Amino acid sequence: MTTATTAPPALQPHDYLNVDALLSDEERAIRDAVRAFVQDNVVGQVGDWFEQGTIPRELAPELGKLGVLGMHLEGYGCAGATATAYGIACLELEAGDSGVRSLVSVQGSLAMFAIWRWGSEEQKQEWLPRMAAGEAIGCFGLTEPDSGSDPGSMRTTARRDGDDWILHGQKMWITNGSIADVAVVWARCSDDGKVRGFVVPTDTPGFSAPEIHKKMSLRASITSELVLDDVRLPADAVLPEVASLKGPLSCLNEARYGIVWGAIGAARACFESALDYAGTRIQFDKPIASFQIQQQKLANMALEVNRGTLLALHLGRMKDAGTLRPEHVSMGKLGNVNAALDVARTARQVLGGNGITLEYPVIRHMNNLESVVTYEGTADVHSLVIGQALTGISAFR
């Protein structure tokens, strides 16, 4: 038995378990680059974006220059980064705001991934290089007003008319919808009942994307309906490599993986804000960090942030090794988003009245996470996915 003779490194409040040591030099470089971008281009402005209910479209080309749009895809101007590197980027982006990470996630893991995985070579060549550069923005049309957790009940239809396809229906809660240049829309075909994906340029007659207003969450993000009023598309608009729900569900699994990381970025931002505030806020002639109950809150927040980061990193290594299953991603999303919500709510309490203002990031992240816990699979649905994996019994039907 050997005993280490070197002293352990000093504790770092912002990296309590020294997760940094588990990253490669390349992963740290990507983290630092994305963190610097967020600090320079998001942190100072995002409170105003949130208050105004918008995100500047011109942010997309800057994200393209950073190399994070479709960064985990190969070829067509994409970076070909590892899954872990992509996750690290999602963490840093969401530490800025969930809306920024959503823009990147919908672009790369939903719209671009759908074309990259299931599209024709012509579709890939036409769209992916421009989307990777942020010159073209994509959206992903699956959810409907009456079809959320059960996408198989979708009512949007695609019917043949000669060589053309006619799409008719409505999609709901679509990130990037009203600023998109292209939409990947999923519809049930009237001839055989199969679900197919369609690449729909948003200037096609009959397509419209009215923006959804009066949101109290994800306000620094564009959310829209998609209305497809007998949209006529040529035969080559269909994604040729899939004709089932496997298509959209594979895309959702890619995006959910990014959320596993991103939620912890939001949690980290809330924890760091609370830690800093507790050390500088004076009450009863001393900083509130000196009181036991505040230290307990900080300790619990640090626990969740570090535990969630390790979970995300482990899933990233599994994804890079080819051993990650969708059920694993469900556990990651369920655990990390719920943990992030707990951290955000606790941080809000530490900041007291200041916790409800946009001068601090906490209430913004807290509100955003109420959407993150619902979209791309609700917490309830992911619990049932895990339950089925544990018991072998489906509780969905």
TrEMBL record:
Transmembrane segment boundaries: none
Catalytic reactions of this protein: glutaryl-CoA + oxidized [electron-transfer flavoprotein] + 2 H(+) = (2E)-butenoyl-CoA + reduced [electron-transfer flavoprotein] + CO2
Pfam families for this protein: Acyl-CoA_dh_1, Acyl-CoA_dh_M, Acyl-CoA_dh_N
Keywords: FAD, Flavoprotein, Oxidoreductase, Transit peptide
Enzyme class: oxidoreductase
EC number: 1.3.8.6
Keyword Oxidoreductase annotated: yes
GO molecular-function terms, A-Z: fatty-acyl-CoA binding; flavin adenine dinucleotide binding; glutaryl-CoA dehydrogenase activity
Domain Acyl-CoA oxidase/dehydrogenase middle: 139-231
Required co-factors: FAD
Domain Acyl-CoA dehydrogenase/oxidase N-terminal: 24-135
Superkingdom of origin organism: Bacteria
UniProt pathway annotation: Amino-acid metabolism; lysine degradation; Amino-acid metabolism; tryptophan metabolism
Name of the protein this chain belongs to: glutaryl-CoA dehydrogenase (ETF)
The organism of origin for this protein: Patulibacter medicamentivorans
UniProt lineage: Bacteria, Bacillati, Actinomycetota, Thermoleophilia, Solirubrobacterales
